[in-house]
User: What shape does this take?
Amino acid sequence: MREITLPLPGRDQSYQILIDPGLRLRLPQVLGALRLPARVFIVTDTRVGSLYGDQTVAVLKDAGYSPTLLTVPRGEKAKTWPVAQRLARELLARGADRSSPLLALGGGVVGDLTGFLASIFMRGVPFIQIPTTLLAMVDAAIGGKTAINLPEGKNLLGTFHQPRLVAIDPQFLQTLPASQRRNGLAEVLKAGFIRDPDLLTRLDKEANRIFKDEGELTEIIHRAAAIKAEVVAADEREGGLRRILNFGHTLGHGLEQASKFRLPHGEAVAWGMLAALRLSEKLAGLAPQEAAWGRQLIRNFGLARSLPRLDPQAVLSALTLDKKRQQDRVVFVLLKRLGEPVIQEDVPLELIKEVLHEVVFRGGN
Ligand SMILES: NC(=O)c1ccc[n+]([C@@H]2O[C@H](COP(=O)([O-])OP(=O)(O)OC[C@H]3O[C@@H](n4cnc5c(N)ncnc54)[C@H](O)[C@@H]3O)[C@@H](O)[C@H]2O)c1
Assistant: This one.
């Protein structure tokens, strides 16, 4: 079993991220240390629930827990106020109290929604992350950011509420569709670009068999999750270091918005990373051969191969409205070298436009 301890500075607290193939079947053992009450509530979505709901309930029941499974729709439409309210009322109807733990069994959507509810239900109850997508394992389940969406935009209502445990079972990924695997791989690559060039070399070697080799997959998840944990521990509330996690995301968000969210998040981030690598060559001194290798690596994973029809001007407009913008300059995370990010506060829009045309819209290298 791999273990990462995530300390929460200034609060004399920490929690563990455990990574182990088959961990879903040994959940009671790892929950035991938390001394939770027997009555627990599992939140999941319809797909994950149909694949793993009964099994999770059975495993917990066998160990003396009394679990209740609550199911929400799949996708972003579950991260809404009406769904959160319905869940809260179901919790009350099923006898939940202020010590009842919520277990989030699913991807980032279920994790964000469950964490949000756990932070406000009876002024806060414990919650456990059991991520089932690669994106949630290496990113969304770690760090305690919770959110739901509003009609006006994504993640507009949210809290910081740290889980008591993140239990990662890489075997969940056996049933994850390829497009969702790619979404997560974009975040794994990002972790390598900002912090761990060795991880990039490893990914380069293993591109074709990552999901076939359980040991390799566990190692890769461990490394990427450790990077997220390290950054979050240093900067829980996104004041400084946590900003490096936005590598590839500035332009990624612009592309996502301009495509009206038809472009999957991982794809958008992959295109954003291609552009950020080019900008890094121009502004931060990244060696051209490193940048070209990085771009090739992204493409080797089947990412950034095609793009829906997009208006470049819409991408630029979305960029200048992004909430991560400071004053009137566009802030980018760039790389001096692979693994060495810098925050570039004032990247000129003209240059972004040039790179966007060169790398994204003409698919250049
Ligand atoms: N809190 C954070 O720090 C943070 C960070 C990044 C992203 N997010 C949020 O995460 C969300 C995206 O998460 P996601 O990409 O995991 O999407 P998701 O939760 O919507 O899951 C994607 C799809 O995969 C299915 N699925 C999940 N696990 C499966 C499995 N093991 N087998 C088969 N199907 C499975 C789900 O039913 C869903 O249809 C977004 O809402 C985003 O805002 C949050």
Summary: The chain has two domains: 2-175, 179-208+236-361. Residues 214-234 form the longest helix (21 residues).
